[in-house]
Structure formats: structure tokens, C-alpha cells
Amino acid sequence: MPKFISLIRNAAGIDAGRFETVAAVRWFTPPVRHVLRYPWGFKTDNRLYISSETHIPPHKGDTMAETRKTKLLIIGSGPAGYTAGVYASRAMLEPILVQGIEPGGQLTTTTEVENWPGDTEVQGPDLMIRMEAHAKAVGTEIIGDIITDLDLSKRPFTATGDSGTKYVADAVILATGARAKWLGLDSEEKFKGFGVSACATCDGFFYRGQEIVVIGGGNTAVEEALFLTNFASKVTLIHRRDELRAEKILINRLMKNPKIEPLWFHELEEVYGADSPLGVEGIKVKHTKTGEITDIPCKGVFVAIGHAPANELIKDTLETHMGGYVVTKPDSTETSIPGVFAAGDLTDHKYRQAVTSAGMGCMAALEAERFLAEVGDDHGKDTSLPLGYGAEVG
Ligand code: FAD
Ligand code: NAP
Hints:
- It is elongated and about 65 Å long.
- It has 10 helices and 21 strands.
- The chain is α/β, with parallel strands linked by helices.
- α4 (79-90) links the parallel β1 and β2.
- It is 26% helix and 24% strand.
- The strands form 6 sheets. Strands 1, 2, 5, 6, 7, 8 and 21 form a 7-stranded mixed β-sheet that branches. A 5-stranded parallel β-sheet has the order 10-17-11-12-13. The protein has a 3-stranded antiparallel β-sheet with strand order 14-15-16.
- The structure holds flavin-adenine dinucleotide and NADP nicotinamide-adenine-dinucleotide phosphate (NAP).
- Flavin-adenine dinucleotide binds at residues 75-81, 98-103, 105-107, 109-110, 113, 115, 146-147, 175-178, 220, 223, 310, 313, 344-346, 352-355, 357.
């Protein structure tokens, strides 16, 4: 695998050794996924997410760290971040957008998106490439970096990138989205990457002709199960209740698919398999009512039990609720710190859709513009002010 990564790195014109290995493996996941989605003909790509047009700051240790000053820093490159970039650029804020470890966000982990207005059907990664291109075209500076530290104690705010670059910003839009949740079993941890996955589009291809299981009952679980039937001989969907929370249209497709067998009222107890080479051979599931344990032989386990907000940067500085979602003022993206706005899945425990995230990205940019017009570059001010400085967007 590392050899493959270095091949891609070289193809993209990125010096070997520029990223930490772990970061590189994760960083390049989206294009690898993209290639895997078109294994029968490499339809689109070599359109790498990190293209020659994406600015990659020098890695710490390579040169002296840079400091970048901006009126508006957008952290995150999902629908919320890119939409904020479009609106902020058109407001002449010359925003900098830092993409993070998953350029394009969660939609790069799926295939068909059927509810993005204007497209009856669009591939998730393609939609995100278009959003990136749109943000770039109107003037957003897009940077391939990961924010590892964010100081919101005074304006201007300071963010530090994994590259060592410091981003100094008068206002910040947080659009770091959400990440897949795991069950927390020791055996799940042991086989992660060796038969246990949270991304069918990334890893489904490796299970041709095999029996696999999907855990969960939401839209993601149902979509993953449907997608996996392209490869697997059988998919067992294991859900802890007998009612799915996925959309009706998806449930109908699931029920009609002869390769999918739902298993109701069951929870994953343990993943087991071989140690050398490490690989899954089956799972044990427990009936939620009777406690009976059943053994299911399988080669792949896809965990699709929802997503949690990616709040690591701000969980100790901003108000959060409902399991870590950033609190915003009603009908607004203002957080508990003036000048800091939050948009998308990071703040949304209810809808968590691409279109609602994009909508919030728009709101955040308009509110940031109004904020900057009101306070200007009032640097060094204590930011521990109450919510509600009266931004009224109209
Ligand atoms: P995300 O898309 O989660 O993006 C977050 C961004 O923040 C990423 O770019 C990440 O790299 C960046 N980031 C995180 N931490 C940092 C950091 N420290 N520094 C810099 N950047 C950082 N919704 C629909 O409407 N229709 C669908 O069909 C649909 N299908 C889905 C299928 C799957 C498998 C999944 C998982 C979700 C699906 N969703 C769908 C939900 C949709 O993807 C999300 O609601 C949407 O992507 C949220 O957008 P976002 O911009 O808030 O964040
Ligand atoms: P979700 O809607 O929160 O569903 C999570 C599922 O996992 C639920 O069925 C839940 O069971 C189950 N679950 C949670 N914790 C569990 C545990 N510890 N053990 C066993 N099962 C567990 O999450 P999601 O499906 O990832 O969707 C997240 C958001 O993205 C949603 O808003 C969704 O609409 C959106 N999305 C949209 C699309 C689309 O529009 N096509 C596609 C994918 C995702 P219970 O039902 O019993 O709680």
C-alpha cells in the first residue's frame, strides 16, 4: 500500500516525504476511491483531489513556516465549506479555505446522490469536484492542509496547520462536518482496515463474490448495503430494531434486492478471524430480546451506525450540545464567540443533508461579511462576548 501511495504522490507531483505517512494514506483516500468506483475503465481519472492547482504549503521542517493573513478562514471542504467559499468570494472577502483530511467531505464516500437539486442523479465525488471548481473560479484560495490547533481567545483568530503554516483570520467559518461512528468493540478495532470498514465505496471492491454484513438502519446503512450488492454474493443487513430509519424509497429498493437479507433485532457482539494474515472470517451477533448468540460467516463487516460531529478543534472553546454539535444562535450560524460561525453537519443534529449544509455555508458567509463590515479588523479584542451582536442579513 505505501508503494501505491508513493506512486500516486509522484503522479501528483508531490515530493515523497512531504506528508506524514498516516496523513498521506488518508489524504489520498478520495482519489483511490474514485479509481475504485470506475474499476472497469478508469472513467474519469487522473483527476486527483490534490491537483497541481491546489496550494500545498511547505511541510514543517521543509522550510520556515509561513504565516497567512486573511479576512475569512473557512475550515472544511464539504458542501458547507465550498458554498461559504462561493458566497464569501463574491462578497470580495478573499477567503482562504483549508480542505482537511477529506477533501470534498462525506459525499466523496458515496456514489449516487439523488436529492441534490438540479441533478436527478450525480456521483458524490463528481459533485464535490464541481463545488471545489466553483469556489476556486470565483476566487476562494483552496489550501491542502489540516488545521491542528485553533486559538479563538482573541481576534484575529489563529489556526495552525499540520504543515506548520499559521492562518491569521478576522473571522472563521467552521465547516468540519461529521465522521463515521464506530461501535467501540475491541474486535472491531483489531480488524479495522482488514475486513472491517465504514466506507463501502472505498472498500466494497475488495469483496467480490464474498458474503458481507452491514450494521445499521439509517440511510447510510441501506445505501451501503445496496451498493455492496454490486460486488458481494450476499449482504446481510443487521439492525437492532425491526424498523429502518432510512428514506422510504431506499427501503423499497432494499426489500426488492434478492442479494440482501435483513436480520432484525440483532447487535454485533464480536468480529472474529485469522491473525496471520489478519482477516475477518465471521461475526457473532446477539438477539436484542432473547440474548441468543448467532454465528454469521462473512469476509467483510461494514459499520454504518451514523456520524458524530468533527468538533475536536473547538469542543473546549465553543458551546456544544446533543452529543457535541456546535450551538448556534436560532436562525443563524453565529456561535458563542463573535466572528466564529459554524455551518453544516458540525452544527446540525437534525437534517444532516448536503443541501442543508450548503444552505448553512451560504448563511455563514453572509453573516461573516456583515460581521466584518461591523467590526472591521478590530484586532486584539477580547472575544468572550455574549451572542447577538445584531447581525441581520438582508
Ligand atoms: P462534510 O461533508 O462532513 O465535510 C467536512 C470537511 O471538513 C471535510 O472536507 C474535512 O476534510 C474537513 N475537516 C474536518 N476537520 C478538519 C480540520 N481539522 N482541518 C481542516 N479541515 C477539516 N446527503 C445528501 O443530501 N444526499 C445524499 O445522498 C447523501 N449521501 C450520503 C452518503 C454517505 C455515505 C454519507 C456518509 C453521507 C451522505 N449524505 C448525503 C450526508 C452529507 O454527505 C452531509 O450532510 C454533508 O456532506 C455535510 O457537509 P459538511 O460540509 O457539513 O461536512
Ligand atoms: P443515522 O440516520 O443516525 O442512522 C444510524 C443508524 O445506526 C440507526 O438505524 C441506528 O439505529 C443505528 N445505530 C446507531 N448506533 C448504533 C449502535 N451502537 N449499535 C447498533 N446500531 C446503531 O445515520 P446515517 O444513516 O449515517 O445518516 C446520517 C445523516 O446523513 C442522516 O441525516 C441521513 O439522512 C444523511 N444521509 C442521507 C442520505 C441520502 O439522502 N440518500 C444518505 C446517507 C446519509 P436506530 O434506528 O435504532 O437508532
